[in-house]
Amino acid sequence: MKKVILSMVIILAGIFTMNAQSAIRKGDLLVNIGMGIGSHHGSAAFMPTADLEAGILTGIAGGKGAFTTGGRLGYYGTEYNLSAVILATKLDFHYQLASSVDGYIGQTLGGYFGNDTGFVYGLHLGARFYIQRDFALFSEVSAGWATPFVLVGVSFRL
After folding, report:
1. What is the DSSP code string of the chain?
2. With a threshold of 0.85, does the pTM exceed it?
3. What was the pLDDT predicted at 106?
4. Bridge-partner residues for 63, per DSSP?
C-alpha cells in the first residue's frame, strides 16, 4: 500500500511541476472541444461545443495577459425535443496564473438555429491546465442565454 501511495504522490508531483508554457502568443491558434450542460427554456440541455481561438493581443498585464478572439460551433438538445446549432463569436482575456495554468474571462455572442432559433449571449470564466505545451484540459462556467452553465473539455494548440 505504501508503494502505491508513494507512486501516486510521485506522479502527481510530476504533473503539477511540469514546466509547460501556457502563455498565449499573438498568432497562436487554439481548438477547444468540450461537453457542457445547461438549461434552455427551463429544460435541461446537453451542449457539445467546438471553439477556435486566435491570439490577437499579447504581452499585456505585466506580460502575463492576452486577448483571443474566435468562434464557437455548438449544439443543444433538450428533453422537450428543442434542438439547434449554435454559431457564436468569442472574445476572451487570458491571464497566466501559473506556468501551466491559464485563466480567462470572456463573452459569447451569436445565434442558434434549428427547430428553435434566437440569440446566444453570455459571460464565461474558465481555466486551462496545460499537460503539455500544445495540450490542455479546460473547465468553464458561464451565465447567459443558450450557453452551457458548466463546460469541460480539451484544448489543442495548432
Report:
1. -HHHHHHHHHHHHHHHT--------TT-EEEEEEEEEEEETTEEEEEEEEEEEEEEEEEETTTTEEEEEEEEEEEEEETTS-EEEEEEEEEEEEEEEETTEEEEEEEEEEEEEESS-EEEEEEEEEEEEEEETTEEEEEEEEEEESS-SEEEEEEEE-
2. no
3. 97
4. none
Contact predicate 58/26, CB 8 Å:
yes
N-to-C CA span, the chain: 41
For residue 55, give the amino acid letter.
G
Query: What residues contact residue 137 under an 8 Å CB cut-off, 6+ apart?
Result: 128, 129, 131, 152, 153, 154, 155
- The string of pLDDT tens digits covering residues 57-70 is 988 888 889 999 99
Residue at grid coordinates 474566435 = 70
